[in-house]
Each structure stands twice: as structure tokens, then as C-alpha cells.
Design a protein that fits this description.
56 residues, single chain, alpha+beta
């Protein structure tokens, strides 16, 4: 994975490297958890109040 930061059309920061396709082939393309569960866990982690579990 590479992270690039641009200011205008100029590259100002970069980090990371490309992952070879062989390593990516073994990974699942589907998320491990759903979006509603991810949001609920994020809010709990941040200790933010929420009224109910979000619905997807």
C-alpha cells in the first residue's frame, strides 16, 4: 500500500510500498465485518454516544 500526499499537483509526501500481486491473491476481497458493525464498533472505541446500532 502506498500513501501519497499532494498539494496542488505537487507530491509533498509519500510512504509505503506496492504489495506484490502474489501476496494479494490469497486475500479475500470481501470485508470481514459489515458497515453497520464497523460504525458501531468505531463509536464504542471513541466512547461516543449513539442511540442504536446503525442499520445497513
Amino acid at each position: 500500500m502506498q500513501s501519497l500526499a499532494l498539494m496542488g499537483s505537487r507530491l509533498v509526501s509519500h510512504a509505503g510500498a506496492f504489495v506484490p500481486a502474489k501476496q494479494l491473491a490469497a486475500l479475500s476481497a470481501s470485508p470481514a465485518i459489515g458497515a453497520a458493525t464497523a460504525m458501531s464498533r468505531t463509536l464504542q472505541h471513541l466512547a461516543r454516544p449513539y442511540a442504536a446500532t446503525p442499520k445497513a
